[in-house]
Structures are given as C-alpha cells and as structure tokens.
C-alpha cells in the first residue's frame, strides 16, 4: 500500500523549510550508497504516532521580485495539486495576508484537493491569535496556528492532515492492474513514450476517474492485459513547461514512484546516465520498487556491434546499486522495442511478488553456507539457523542467527547472490532483516 503524499506550498520565507525540518527531524531515511537520498531535503518519509506519509517541500528557489514570486507559487501549487493527497498551505502571521496568498488559495480551492491552512510563526498564541483569524478570508477553511521554529501546534496540524488521508478500506479495493511509473529528467522522452505506448497499440484509452489522483493516470491495454500508467496528466499536457526545474522533476519522480509497482527509469541515450538520473533511480531503489532501465533515443546514436555492450557496461557502472534491473534500448520516436516494455513489466511484477517456500529457501542457504563459511569475530562464528520470506514487493527475508553483530554486509550480499542464482528475482530489489534467536 502506498503512503499518502503531503505537499507544502507557500511564499518564500513563511517557514516551509523550518516546518519540513521540524517534521522530518532525524527521521529522514538515509540510505548509504544511494545517490540523491542523503543530500536533498525535497522529500522525507514521516512517521508520526501510527501514521506514515511522504512529505514534499515544493519550495526551494528564492525569487527576488513579486511577479516572480507569484509565478513560482502558481507552479508550486500546480505540482502539489497534481501529485499530493493533502496540501499544506503555509502562511505567515507576521507578514499577514498578502495578495499572492489569496491568488494561490483560489487555485487550491478550485482544485478540490484537501488543503490544510497553516499560519506559521505564531510563537505566542495569546498575542497572535487575533491576527490568525484574518486568514479565514482565504476561504480555504480554518487556519491552524503553528510555530514551526518552536514546534508549537504541530500535533494539531498533523491530526488535521491525517483526517484527509485515504481510508484503509478504500485502498484495499482489489486492483490487479500493474501500476507503472515512467520517470526521468525533463526531455528524456517520457511523454513520447506514453504517446507511443498509447498510439502503437490502438487501444481504448480511459482516464479512470475515481479518486482525484486516479484522474491523472492512464489505462493502457496491451494484448488483453491492462496496465495503469501513473501521473501521465502532466506528461500528456501539451503546453507543459519544457525546462522543468530539477526540483519539480524529483518531486514528480518521488510521488509517481510511491504509487507504482514498477518504475521505468528512462535515460537519454545521447547523454548517458547523468547525476540526476542516478538520483531518480536511487529513489526507486530505496523504495523497493520493481525496476526497468530504459535507454531511450536509441535511434539517435551511432552504433556498431559493440555499442550495446559498451553502453550496458557504462549504465551498470553508474547504477551499480541496481544490478538486478534489466536494461532495454528503445526509441519512442521510431517505436523500436517499445512494446517489449509490457513483457518486461509482467516479468518484473511476477518476480517482485514471487514467494519462495521456506524449505527450498533453507536448502539454498545451507548449501551457500557450506560453500563459503560465515564470518567470525574474536573466535565467535556466525551461525545461520533459518531463513524465511516474510513479504513481497519487494521480496523480504528474515534471517535468524546467533549474533547479529557477526553478520557482515558482504555476507548478506553473498547470500542474496546465491538466492538470485536460484530464483532470479530480475527487476526487483531484495530486502534482508537479520534477527537473533537465542
Ligand atoms: P521558506 O523560505 O518558506 O522555506 O522559509 P524558512 O523556513 O527558510 O524560514 C524563513 C525565516 O522564518 C527564517 O529566518 C526562519 O528562522 C523564520 N521562521 C520559520 N518558522 C518560524 C516560526 O515559527 N517563528 C518565527 N519567529 N520565525 C520562524
Ligand atoms: P519528456 O520531457 O521526458 O516528456 O520528453 P518528451 O517526450 O517531451 O521528449 C523531449 C524531446 O525528445 C522531444 O523533442 C522528442 O521529440 C524527443 N524524443 C523523444 N523520444 C525520442 C527518441 O526516441 N528519439 C529521438 N531521436 N528523439 C526523441
């Protein structure tokens, strides 16, 4: 089940990053060796009491004139409307209500997205409450006073946000269709791919309008099988802003990835794997999604009989943390190998939902242990008692051992490789937890 997505929108200096940090704190998930995950504070997974959600800060750039501020706020609001379940609209009690707040509030109201209106910098409730009431004039509901800097009112704010989260029962509606996200930096050819996938197959296209977010997804039928392509509204929009900011493309990637079963990481063949590509790939990997690497614009480069091999090597080198992913060389322009993507999606889904019987799994691991002794430290050797698969998407295993401290990363990696030798698991990461059994 995907986590709800909450986006923060607001003018510069109202306290967006302060609020983000107050919520994310040290809880930001830090995954070593995964590019992009540690440096950026564009998004974070938040755990609060029994709720978890993904928080996105749409702000980031510091515009200098009022015109620019409004234009940028509109863009922020637009991306929040497209991607979030709940929008936090943050204002500043000290600056009071300003014109651009009202304009953005209008946009948000028209979107019919749940909006939680926050009035920040209310460091002293007695003193500032009268000024907070002014924000009722925005017409987007009750203003909630907070002080992001002193972490006041945060609990009430989160309660309000949680009220808008999709109900669990609704999420459990059976939907067998694979959910696919095409991600990649601007101009890599995402829209062209969607259009080709749609056009080539001459299928019935339907925007399935159920919940607000479904309206931005597209169902594609290929050989009697149904697939849902996520977040395609922004891609198919004709007048989309071409030079999309890197921040927005990361936000799109995070939110699409969160909702997807399979992520197609798209690389521009004419540019090779860039740092931004690696960041986006890191997001999908970190979240344990099924993965396909598509190298697009394959028509546009000069090739000889070594090109595929050399290119594959380069991609593998940079995206070494996802060696399990298959690479496909495609052209959205000519349609070359584009429908192969459907077969790959099926394969990835099958592997990410594969369950291995405990008996078989333990046989493989016993053999592996016999072939390569587990590590030891100060005379004490790691003993592996038992391994079992506890869940899928991604396949997740628990290994029971005598002493957790003795389990090296490299040995887990070794076991992973042996398991992959037997069962493949192409296109999906595998997760391992190590537990002690006395
Ligand atoms: P952003 O541009 O919206 O991300 O705003 P920042 O989070 O960078 O905050 C802008 C300024 O407002 C900084 O100087 C913060 O220290 C200050 N600020 C943020 N939250 C509060 C608050 O709750 N109370 C007060 N007094 N100042 C705050
Ligand atoms: P998006 O920003 O990722 O959605 O990228 P677009 O689909 O808008 O494509 C950006 C540019 O790359 C456009 O000019 C496309 O015509 C071009 N393009 C997309 N796919 C291909 C391809 O397979 N081959 C070539 N040569 N050009 C492509």
Compact summary:
By secondary structure, the protein is an alpha/beta fold. The protein contains 14 helices and 18 strands.
CATH top level assignment of the largest domain = Alpha Beta
Strands, total number: 18
Output the CATH topology of the largest domain. Answer: Rossmann fold
Task: Work out the strand percent.
Answer: 15-25%
The helicity comes to 25-40%
Number of domains: 3
Classify the secondary structure makeup into a structural class.
alpha/beta
Give me the CATH architecture of the largest domain, please: 3-Layer(aba) Sandwich
Low-pLDDT ranges:
27-39, 202-214
What profile does the largest beta sheet have?
A: 7 strands, mixed
Order of the strands making up the biggest sheet: 8-9-10-7-11-12-13
Number of helices: 14
Radius of gyration: 24 Å
Termini separation comes to 33 Å
Pfam families: KH_dom-like, MMR_HSR1
GO molecular function, one term: ribosome binding
Domain EngA-type G: 4-169, 178-353
Subunit structure: Associates with the 50S ribosomal subunit.
Topology, pairings included?
Layout: E1 5-10, H1 16-24, E2 43-48, E3 51-57, H2 66-83, E4 86-92, H3 99-111, E5 115-120, H4 125-133, E6 144-145, H5 154-163, H6 168-171, E7 179-183, H7 190-201, E8 206-207, E9 218-222, E10 225-229, H8 233-236, H9 246-259, E11 262-268, H10 275-286, E12 290-296, H11 307-318, E13 326-329, H12 340-352, H13 358-371, E14 376-377, E15 380-381, E16 384-391, E17 396-401, H14 409-423, E18 431-436
Parallel strand pairs: 1-3, 1-4, 4-5, 5-6, 7-10, 7-11, 11-12, 12-13, 17-18
Antiparallel strand pairs: 2-3, 8-9, 9-10, 14-15, 16-17
Helix pairs in contact: 2-3, 9-10, 13-14
Bound molecules: guanosine-5'-diphosphate (2 copies).
